[in-house]
Amino acid sequence: MGFDPLSGSDEAQDKPLWQRLAWMLLIWLASVMVLGAVAYGLRLWLK
């Protein structure tokens, strides 16, 4: 029917741990890079 985020039977449980950790690391690195780019842009703008 639809996507139920509270159900425990989703595809994420079937993925290996290393793959889930790699995705988490990738998302974390991307967010840190975006935050750094925004901070650098603000620094240049306010200088």
UniProtKB/TrEMBL annotation:
Organism superkingdom = Bacteria
Q: Which UniProt keywords apply?
A: Membrane, Transmembrane, Transmembrane helix
Q: What's the name of the protein?
A: DUF2474 domain-containing protein
The record lists the membrane-crossing segments as: 20-42
Give the matching InterPro entries.
Answer: DUF2474
Q: Which species is listed as the source?
A: Qipengyuania polymorpha
This protein's record includes keyword Transmembrane: yes
What Pfam families has UniProt attached to this entry?
DUF2474 (PF10617)
